[in-house]
Amino acid sequence: MSKIQSHENCNHESSKAARAKCRRSRAKFADAFASALTDGTPIETPVFESVNVTRENWRDHADSPVVLFTRISDDEEAPIAEGVKITGWGKQWVNYVNDEGKTKRTAVTCLGARTIEA
Ligand SMILES: [Zn+2]
After folding, report:
1. Ligand 1 centroid, distance to 42 Cα (angstroms)
2. Which helix (H) or strand (E) segment is 8 a member of?
3. Which residues contact 24 (CB under 8 A, 6 or more apart)?
4. Of 5, 22, 91, 118, whose CB neighbour count within 10 A is largest?
5. Alpha carbons 107 and 33: distance in angstroms, whole number
6. Residue 19 Cα, ligand 1 centroid: separation in angstroms?
7. How far apart are CA 73 and CA 89, in angstroms?
């Protein structure tokens, strides 16, 4: 006898009818549980997609927190500031405000920026 059909933890009387009733209610519960798992719409969690911020599009992302970093190589980055907001992107400098509201700037040379989740 499989464990799920065992009645050793049940409170009903140990008659054939009581055991049958118990099995039916278990099956009903199992079906309800299975359909709740399968017929539900997929749970949609908002997925944050990071955007590369450039001199061209930074104004569109001026209200988004970004991470600024130096590109060291194709796959290496050195973070400069995280969670800051860009306030200007010139030929030489990028201005940004940090979380203390202070305006700072960093050189555009090798600079990368991308939005991060607020
Ligand atoms: Zn039972």
Report:
1. 34
2. none
3. none
4. 22
5. 58
6. 5
7. 22
Q: Which residue has the tokens 């079906």?
A: 31
What is the whole-number distance in angstroms between the Cα of residue 116 and the centre of ligand 1?
A: 54
**Cα 38 to ligand 1 centroid, rounded to whole Å:** 27
Residue located via tokens 């001199």: 55
Please report where in the chains the tokens 């709740």 appear, as a residue: 36
For the stretch 44-79, pLDDT in tens is 777 889 999 999 999 999 999 999 999 999 899 999
Yes or no: is domain 58-115 CATH 1.10.10? no
Domain ranges of the chain: 1-46, 58-115
Tell me, in angstroms, the distance from the centre of ligand 1 to residue 13's CA. Answer: 8
Classify strands 103-107 and 93-97 as parallel, antiparallel or unpaired: antiparallel
What pLDDT band is residue 39 in, cutting at 50, 70 and 90?
low
Residues 6+ positions from 77 with CB-CB distance below 8 Å? 69, 70, 71, 112
